[in-house]
Amino acid sequence: MPRAEPRAGSLRPPGRRPPQPTAATTVTRAKSGASRSVFNRRVLFAVTAAYLVALGIVLLWPDHIDRNAGAAYAVLYAVFPGATATAMDFGLNVVLFLPFGALLATILRGHPWVLAGVAWVVPLFVELFQGVFLPGRTSSVLDVAANTLGGLIGAALTAALRRAIAHRHARTPARRRTRTRG
């Protein structure tokens, strides 16, 4: 086999090839990457399921779930002393839907208008359900707005984090990436 000449700018001496990974190394790396990926997907699925169940309980409980949360509200009012009850409720509704937006950004990646629609329609239907079927709850347009805003902020934060990770990954030399994986 003829010897290949080094490319211009190559630091490799003529006739030397880069070390090739063995089949065992490739299989081991593939298995460890695959098992990590399966584990990560299972953890993500479990966390998603737990969040959605908790969100369903909070949103569809027959009575206001925060009725007996006086101590928690006392802490919040101590942290945010100038907050009104309406502002506190709005802020908590935004925070409640941040993970929902992150989930939407993961599921509906590349479809921002669909994501915005789902982030608006789901809280709208929840509030309609509360108003029609749960007499102990009050439905509010402000809740729809806050929940939608929380979903959109969660999606935007997820997209920004994804871009930052991709940018950092693109800047990391391939040689260092392979070394830290295995």
- Overall helicity: over 70%
The helix tally amounts to 7
Please tell me the total number of domains. 1
H/E topology pattern:
HHHHHHH
Number of strand elements: 0
Q: Please describe the biggest sheet, giving its number of strands, its sense, and whether it closes into a barrel.
A: none
Radius of gyration (CA) equals: 25 Å
Distance between the termini: 33 Å
Q: Tell me, briefly, the overall form.
A: elongated
Q: In oligomeric terms, what are we looking at?
A: single chain
Structure at a glance:
The chain has 182 residues and is mainly alpha-helical.
Question: Which key features would you list for this structure?
Answer:
single chain, 182 residues, mainly alpha, 7 helices, elongated
Can you tell me about this structure?
With 182 residues, the chain is an all-alpha fold. The chain has one domain (24-181). It is 72% helix and 0% strand. The chain is built from seven helices and no strands. The chain has helices at residues 23-60, 70-79, 85-96, 98-107, 112-133, 141-171, 174-181. The longest helix has 38 residues, at 23-60. The protein is elongated. The model has no long low-confidence stretch (mean pLDDT 84).
